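Morning. Coffee machine broken again, so started the prediction first thing and wrote up yesterday's gels while waiting. Chain of 143 residues, entered below exactly as on the submission form.
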Amino acid sequence: MPQIVMQQQFNAPVSKVFGLLSKHATFDALFWPIKSVRIQDSEDPSNADGLGSIREMGVGPLKLIREQITLVEPNQTIEYAMLKNPLVRHHLGRLEFAEQGGKTHVKYTIELESKPPLVDRLVLAQLKLTASAGLRKIAKNLR
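Came back before lunch.
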């Protein structure tokens, strides 16, 4: 399965980093210029972006990507999967959080298998550049 792995250190406690990266709106900074809009709230009234919530992502009015949060382990793991896309056979994102000495380490893995051959590798290469830069920017601005 084609995948990318990104890692980023944050100078903040895990609760703060997890809270930020568990919000759909944060993905605007993570994957700029792609915008993310929550279209379905989770069943948890205290966390609309939580388990079961769905976001649409894209540029401008063209939002062809739909992702659903499939796993939330507070301050440990967030996982999401793409919903019904004609070009994608499998897409899974996983953010893993670990705190040590008041700093948080995030490991972000994205798996992607496209239906057309080799498209997944091209998309993953672009995602790695964009998301790595986004993670660095978020880490730098987090105080």
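The chain has a mean pLDDT of 95. Going to sketch it on the whiteboard this afternoon.
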